[in-house]
TrEMBL record, chain B:
Domain ABC transmembrane type-1: 75-258
Native source species: Viridibacillus arvi
Lineage: Bacteria, Bacillati, Bacillota, Bacilli, Bacillales
UniProt-annotated location(s): Cell envelope; Cell membrane; Membrane
Protein name per the record: Phosphate ABC transporter permease
Keyword Transmembrane helix: yes
GO CC annotations on file: cell envelope; plasma membrane
Family listed: Belongs to the binding-protein-dependent transport system permease family.
Membrane topology note: Multi-pass membrane protein
Automatic annotation (TrEMBL), chain C:
Protein name as it appears in the record: Phosphonate ABC transporter ATP-binding protein
UniProt key word Cell membrane: yes
InterPro entries in UniProt: AAA+_ATPase, ABC_transporter-like_ATP-bd, ABC_transporter-like_CS, ABC_transpr_PhnC, MetN_ABC_transporter-like, P-loop_NTPase
Keywords tagged on the record: ATP-binding, Cell membrane, Membrane, Nucleotide-binding, Phosphonate transport, Translocase, Transport
Pfam family, one: ABC_tran
GO function term, MF aspect, one: ABC-type phosphonate transporter activity
Gene Ontology cellular-component annotations: membrane
Presence of the UniProt keyword Transferase in the record: no
Superkingdom of this protein's organism: Bacteria
Limits of the ABC transporter domain: 2-246
Gene3D superfamilies: P-loop containing nucleotide triphosphate hydrolases
């Protein structure tokens, strides 16, 4: 313990100056990083000012929104919600075995849970739009590849969150079910499942929120939903229609977020 | 009967459970009714096989090509987009964060309007933003930077505002007592408290931005996404394989670096 | 009947948990294991239903070796041994009745238990068990709404619904206040006397042990240092063994340490 009323010793002073040196190096590094990324992306500070101000001009063209276009937007928007729902469901089902196999307190074998966790980590590094592009190549255009892409993507999220929650459960009931003579499946069903279920449902709802946002853009690669309408209307420079789509997307996202939040509050 | 004395399952919970089942059932009927589930291409199996083959025999030659347009340059471009987008948002979100934070003595209306602005920006998908910026500044990395920058303001602003709301107001008062002006109070009492949190959230956002940056190219906003979507469209699966591998390796390495820095800060 | 034959347990870090234990617990006995913290009481109890593996020797339950049992046979032996824990080990979010029925899973197919389709007789059995420990009115309450003493009685009901021939109890009253302590131990005593279930209970308190046990086993560093009927377990005898008064009151903190002032 350092006493309160001593002057900084020589070593402390030098460590202070070392810290300052470290800060200078960090700042220098950040500036270099900034400069390099400006150069790499071929952009300049002036571009930023121009970019944001041009954006402003475009925003002005977006008002007022084309309300008549609303009728055209609703069906693909509903498709988007359907895709998100089905994708989340697939992800939620696939996540269960992965989550259980990854939890070190359910299956104590390291040779089992490390590889499974590795696969989960791999899946989560692949963005959903990429998955969708690949599934479009396999299955053709339409919502089906979108649903599969969302399913795989949300499986990664739900499984990771659920296995982490599983590792935090009360070990008492686990021991009690072993003592009762339950087999492995009964043991999981009666001690792990009831403890994890509320968390799991909450994570599924969270994944649904993410998937609604994601589903809204999957159409950009031909995987169904509202996304292709962005592409179409922007292509024809119909900015008033674009803003109609944006407003519709925002409304849906906010509505789903709200419902999901309320449900999650009730659960935990 | 003897068991008549035993309590029976309360009716209310049973009723509640069944209504949940029915609602869920209706939702799924609705969801499945709208989606055309047929229309599998007959070649699906064949293509899947080709993809898996391609993924397991990546096109190593693509990693570096002297004439350019190779994996390394694509990844560097992606990294630069993510870095620049993160820089932009980290700086631009600070005023918004102070605007939205509710503890630095401002009106409720002001705070709420700030919070609303941030959540509005946040719900706006970054790819749609990128599409719009492509219209504004033309296709290329710069549109991607702007899209990431603007989109991240929404989330970073919210996290920063929460960080500001959690500070200890004691030091501010102490400085006020010594006669400091508002700017001095901010600089000496607020900033030191929020900096670690700001850095940590910025790094976290950087990890997310890197993933986003890797797909921006699909719609023409720069980075590795462009060669990737070309490779997918031209069915060049071994090239898709090497690009996917490249993305996974880059994202994993950056995640590791970023999370180790975050751990040291907090 | 539980037979310990030269049972030893050495933990991987070299600590001796049990040291060459040879004894037999007969059907219908109420055995209380006493000893200081770390004496091996918990290891002793958990080795009976093989929640802990022993390193050498053999434990035989009703003429079947649990040490050598594998797969289904092990599960079946465990099914016949109920267990009660210091921290109750109920699933707190589940209803009381579901926690009690969890004791029945060993009797049914995996599929049936997964669907929660217990036969009506099982439900009656569970209700009777709850009735016996006087919390039948809480059957459909969530377990975390119950007090500690009530939760412990639910876990006794679980062991009863299990139709166990032996019940192991690991510090069943250490988390309870004196009043509920007495209620829980009375429940256990009644079960022992009326149903003839063998009870093996770990307790910190020699007072309580004398009050309820028919036989007391004292452990120290994994060895049996006392084994005999209650009448022989006098204060003098325990002072002789442990070199100090074993304890005064019936809670954990009051286990006396050597006085050194």
């Amino acid at each position: 313990m350092r006493k309160a009323l001593t002057y900084p010793s020589h070593t402390e002073l030098s460590s202070m100056s070392m810290r300052r040196k470290k800060h200078v190096w960090t700042a220098l590094f950040l500036i270099l990083l900034f400069a390099w990324s400006l150069w790499q992306t071929e952009s300049s500070l002036l571009d930023f000012i121009n970019g944001f101000s041009n954006m402003f001009d475009l925003l002005i063209q977006m008002v007022p929104p084309n309300w008549a276009y609303f009728d055209n937007v609703v069906p693909p928007m509903l498709d988007t919600i359907r895709m998100a729902l089905l994708g989340t469901t697939i992800g939620a089902i696939l996540a269960i075995p992965f989550a259980l196999l990854s939890a070190s307190n359910v299956f104590k074998n390291k040779a089992l849970y490390y590889p499974i966790r590795f696969i989960l980590n791999l899946i989560r590094t692949i963005p959903e739009l990429l998955l969708a592009a690949i599934f479009v190549a396999i299955l053709g255009l339409g919502p089906l590849p979108g649903i599969f892409a969302l399913g795989i993507f949300s499986m990664g999220i739900i499984a990771k969150l659920t296995y982490e929650a599983t590792e935090g459960i009360d070990p008492g009931p686990l021991e009690a079910m072993t003592a009762v003579g339950a087999n492995k499946i009964q043991w999981i069903a009666y001690s792990v499942v009831p403890q994890v279920t509320p968390y799991y449902i909450s994570f599924v709802l969270y994944a649904l929120e993410i998937n609604v946002r994601a589903a809204a853009i999957l159409g950009l690669v031909g995987a169904g939903g509202i996304g292709e309408y962005y592409d179409k209307t922007l292509g024809f420079l119909e900015y008033d229609k674009v803003s109609t789509i944006i407003i519709c997307t925002l409304l849906v996202v906010l509505a789903i977020d709200y419902v999901s939040m309320k449900l999650r509050e009730k659960l935990l | 009967m003897k068991n008549a004395a035993y309590p029976i399952k309360p009716k209310r919970s049973r009723w509640k459970l069944w209504s949940i089942y029915i609602v869920l059932f209706l939702i799924y009927v609705w969801a499945l009714s709208g989606v055309p589930l047929e229309g599998f291409k007959e070649t699906a199996g064949q293509i899947s096989k080709a993809i898996i083959n391609g993924l397991f025999s990546p096109d190593w030659d693509y990693v570096y090509l002297p004439e350019g347009e190779d994996l390394l340059r694509g990844l560097l471009d992606t990294l630069a987009i993510a870095i620049l987008g993160t820089f932009v948002s980290a700086f631009l979100c600070v005023p918004f964060a102070f605007w939205a934070a509710n503890n630095l003595s401002k009106g409720v209306i002001l705070t709420q309007s700030g919070k609303f602005m941030l959540s509005f920006v946040r719900t706006f998908p970054e790819l749609v933003m990128a599409l719009i910026f492509i219209k504004v500044v033309g296709p290329g990395s710069f549109a991607g930077v702007l899209a990431l920058g603007l989109h991240s303001i929404g989330m970073l602003g919210k996290l920063f505002a929460e960080e500001i709301e959690n500070i200890d107001l004691g030091p501010t008062e102490a400085l006020k007592a010594t006669g400091a002006n508002p700017i001095q109070m901010l600089w000496f009492a607020v900033v030191p408290q929020v900096i670690p949190g700001f850095i940590s959230y910025t790094l976290y956002r950087f990890e997310i931005n890197l993933r986003s940056a890797s797909v921006l190219g699909i719609i023409g906003a720069g980075g590795i996404g462009t060669p990737l979507i070309f490779a997918i469209q031209s069915r060049n699966w071994s090239r898709v394989g090497i690009i996917l591998l490249g993305i996974i390796v880059m994202v994993t390495i950056i995640d590791m670096i970023s999370s180790s820095i975050r751990k040291r800060i907090v | 009947m539980i037979e310990f034959k030269q049972v030893s347990k050495i933990y991987p870090n070299g600590v001796v948990g049990l040291d060459n234990i040879n004894l037999t617990i007969k059907k219908g006995e109420f055995v209380v294991i006493v000893g200081l913290s770390g004496a091996g009481k918990s290891t002793f109890l958990r080795s009976i239903n093989r929640l802990h593996e022993i390193t050498s020797g053999e434990i035989i339950i009703d003429n079947t070796s649990i040490t050598k049992a594998k797969g289904k046979q092990l599960l079946k032996i465990r099914r016949d041994i109920g267990m009660i824990f210091q921290s109750f080990n109920l699933v707190k979010r589940s209803t009381v009745i579901r926690n009690v029925l969890a004791g029945r899973v060993g009797y049914h197919s995996t599929m049936r238990t997964l669907l929660g389709l217990f036969p009506p007789e099982d439900k009656k059995l569970a209700m009777r068990a709850l009735e016996r420990v006087n919390i039948i009115d809480k059957a459909y309450s969530r377990s975390d709404q119950l007090s500690g003493g009530q939760q412990q009685r639910v876990s006794i009901a679980r062991a009863l619904a299990q139709e166990a021939k032996i019940i192991l109890a690991d510090e069943p009253v250490a988390s309870l206040d004196p009043l509920t302590t007495v209620q829980v131990l009375e429940d256990l005593k009644t079960i022992n006397v009326e149903l003839g279930i063998t009870l093996v209970v770990n307790l910190h308190s020699i007072e309580l042990a004398r009050q309820y046990a028919t036989r007391i086993i004292g452990l120290q560093e994994g060895r049996v240092v006392f084994d005999g009927p209650v009448e022989q377990a006098t204060d003098e005898r325990f002072k002789e063994i442990y070199g100090q008064p074993f304890e005064v009151k019936n809670n954990e903190e009051s286990v006396n340490l050597p006085i050194s002032h």
